[in-house]
Amino acid sequence: MTCALLPGSPAIDSGTSAGAPETDQRGIDRPQKSGFDRGAYEVSVRKYLVMKTPSHEMFSFSTSVEEFESGEGTAWSFPEGMPVTVTFLHETGKAVKDVLVDRQSIGAVRSYTFPNLDRDHEIEVVFMDAPASSGGGCSASGTGIFAFLLILPAALFRRRR
After folding, report:
1. pTM of the predicted structure, to 2 decimals
2. Strand locations in the chain, DSSP E?
3. Helix intervals (H) in 13-159
4. 57 vs 49, 94, 99, 155, CA distance in Å?
5. Is-cis flag, bond preceding 79, omega within 30?
6. How many CA atoms lie within 13 A of 11 on its CB side?
7. How far apart are CA 102 and CA 161, in angstroms?
8. Residue 44, helix vs strand vs coil
9. How far apart are CA 114 and CA 151, in angstroms?
10. Residue 1 CB contacts under 8 Å (≥ 6 apart), including other chains
11. Gap between the Cα atoms of 42 and 154, Å rounded
């Protein structure tokens, strides 16, 4: 079992590089700050994701770690070097219009992955009212007098081959 060092611990940055492994017991690179930490644990530097939406709209997002409720300018911290996938979960009747990562548009995506969270980032999600689509698809299955109908928007419908 690996025990984390607490903030202010005298073991932080007071170790030596002589004979020290390149990573701690969890695989975190060493050193993280100005020096090696003593023992099997290296305190990782935390990085922040700041989520923004126009007009103070509420939405939620999930990462590979957990699901969060969000609002304007809310920030969450994650360990540096951790891969984080952010999935945007909008309210019913809304759709993602655009996503900006560090003020650069990446389009109307449902999720974005930071393969190595190496610095602070800002994510802005722009929502719009979900448009009704024409030309949707329909598939049916079942027997007897009841049938199950699955109605999909055209963008989600795939023909079976």
Report:
1. 0.49
2. 46-52, 59-62, 67-70, 74-79, 84-89, 94-101, 104-107, 111-114, 121-129, 137-141, 148-152
3. none
4. 18, 11, 14, 26
5. no
6. 12
7. 42
8. coil
9. 34
10. none
11. 51
Residues in the chain: 161
Distance CA 86, CA 122 (A): 12
Domain ranges, ordered by start, for the chain: 1-44, 46-129
- Name the token pair of 64: 């590979």
Residue 158 CA to residue 137 CA, distance in Å, equals 8
Give, for all 161 residues of the chain, the pLDDT tens digit.
667 777 788 998 899 999 989 988 877 788 887 889 998 888 776 666 666 655 555 555 656 555 555 555 556 667 777 777 777 777 777 788 888 888 899 999 988 888 877 777 778 888 888 776 555 554 444 444 444 444 445 444 445 44
Query: What is the torsion angle, in degrees rounded to the nearest 10, for the CA atoms of residue 104, residue 133, residue 155 and residue 147?
Result: 140
| Contact (CB, 8 A) for 24 and 15 | no
Whole-number Å distance between alpha carbons of 49 and 15: 30
What residues contact residue 33 under an 8 Å CB cut-off, 6+ apart? 12, 13, 43, 45
